[in-house]
Amino acid sequence: MVKKYRITRASGFKERLLGLIPYKTLSDNEIFFIKDCSAIHTFFMHFPIDVIFTDKAGLIVSLKEALLPWRVFSGSRGARDVYEAIPGIIRRLNLKKGDNVKRKLK
Question: Is 90 part of a structural domain of the chain?
Fold first, then answer.
């Protein structure tokens, strides 16, 4: 079964600052994307998330499964953008460092 993913892009200062804090949960096909972001926090969040950092070419440079609330996580060297989703997406898509995340999400 092919699953379509809905990517919500943080477009303004407030969306970037708050991230997923206002969300009570995400659906299993929903992904939150922040451009030009190399570190995140999960302060005040209501649920854990899978975190995928990519470089400027869209290649995965860092992954974190089920990052709990009240944590800080930095992408590795070269991290430019971040994708956040419910726990399990990294395993479901079999994501690995070096993969092109945009190809995997199609």
Answer: yes
How far is it, in rounded angstroms, from Cα 56 to Cα 63?
A: 16
Instruction: For residue 1, tell me if it sits in a domain.
Output: no
- The closest alpha carbon to 83, from 69, 68, 71, 100, belongs to 100
Residue 78 and residue 97 in contact, taking contact as beta carbons nearer than 8 Å: no
The tens digit of pLDDT for each residue in 54-97 reads: 999 999 999 999 999 999 999 999 999 999 999 999 999 999 99
Collapsing DSSP to helix, strand or coil, 7 comes out as strand
CATH number at residue 83: 2.60.120.1140
Strands (E), 21-76: 30-34, 39-41, 49-54, 60-67, 72-74
Number of domains in the chain: 1
The answer to whether the predicted template modeling score (pTM) of the entire model surpasses 0.70 is yes
Sheet holding 60-67, edge to edge: 6-9, 30-34, 81-85, 49-54, 60-67
Domain of 72, in residue numbers: 6-105
